[in-house]
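Hi there,

I know you've been waiting on this one. I reran it after we fixed the sequence typo, so this is the corrected version. Both the input and the resulting structure follow.
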Amino acid sequence: PIVDKYKNIHGLVTLEEILSIESKKNIFFIMAGGKGLRLGDLTKDTPKPMLKVGNKPMIERVISNAKKNGFNNFLLSVNYKKNKIINYFKNGSKFDIKINYIKEDNNKPLGTAGSLSYLPKTEFPVIVSNADVISDIDYNDLLNFHYENKSDFTVVTASNEIETLFGQVELKKNKIVGIKEKPIIKIQVAAGIYVINSNLTKYVKRGVYLNMNELILKLLRKNKKIFSYSINGSWSDLGSKEDFISIQNKYN
């Protein structure tokens, strides 16, 4: 049984499920170098990935879900207050995993994709995740999707609703034929989780600032196959103080 600190049951994992978890050879790469400026004073003394969601740092929740899916080889890209992350996880042995680090220069951040240039050579696709994305995504299903579609780069996407600030006028030439008051628009957004074939890192120059959207556009110009994997489970991006505070109710 999966229980909380009050012994309330929240789920069940069978022995068959535990024994069927296959250890993955893929690297699980976590981007954990951001300053988290939108979180204000919360990140003044603590790097954003180490802010606790419930009783665990948010990055530990990312690692725990990946480990549950059979990943045990982690690479963390760290920058802002990096030593607090490194001192907590060390080499990963206390979590029964292996952790290595890419230590960015404090005065030269690499963006959300630049540190991919330091990936070691590997024949397997690499899972990439932002440290502030809390999700119950099935990484095994994500990898299978990547393989089945012979994708070069897979972007995990999530459905998001945006309420517009104005009434939407429907026109036929210059004649108004309808109006919707502050309609809600549904869009697919990048969820901060990706699968990248390791040979694509040649398009990332070492030591040069690069964001993920810029890398994706570059790969599209190279005619690489990029697919969207739509997430079905829960997903939260803790980019703002409001998002960070609201998710606490779920884990406290």
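Quick highlight: The chain is about 20% helix and 30% strand.

Best,
R. S.
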